[in-house]
Amino acid sequence: MGVGKTTLTKALVKELGGKDTVNSPTFGIVNEYRGVNGELLAFHFDFYRIKEEVEALDLGFDDYLNQDVWIFIEWAEKIPSLLPDEATHIFLEVIDETTRSIYIS
Fold it and tell me: Which of 20, 75, 82, 91 could be cross-linked to 33 through a Cys-Cys bond (beta carbons 3.0 to 4.6 Å apart)?
């Protein structure tokens, strides 16, 4: 919590040309972001509140994966078997109040 997941997503969506305000989808589970021309750019999931992977499937997560857009997932460790093999994993860690480390695999 508070490591910068949503802040990173805001920066990435902005770089992709997003026009929407990026917020954590904690309560809605998923947000979608569009570009300046209205094209769908990305989905942003927050799985913090789910208890079992089946809840992600109930939301139609597999249908989201079949679209040709960026997908950002907070708390992806809650759905390990649902992640595609080609997923890029970004790990953030708090160093101190103003410093974070980032590891990409």
Answer: 20
| Overall residue count recorded for the chain in this entry | 105
Task: Burial-class residue 35 by CB neighbours within 10 Å (0-12, 13-18, 19+).
Answer: middle
Using alpha carbons, select from 57, 6, 55, 60 the residue that is nearest to residue 33. Answer: 6
Per residue of the chain (105 residues), what is the pLDDT tens digit? 567 788 888 999 999 999 888 888 777 789 999 999 999 999 999 999 999 999 999 999 999 999 999 999 999 999 999 999 999 999 999 889 888 898 998
**Assigned token pair, 38:** 């209205």
Give how many domains the chain has, as a whole number: 1
Instruction: Domain of residue 66: give its range.
Output: 5-104
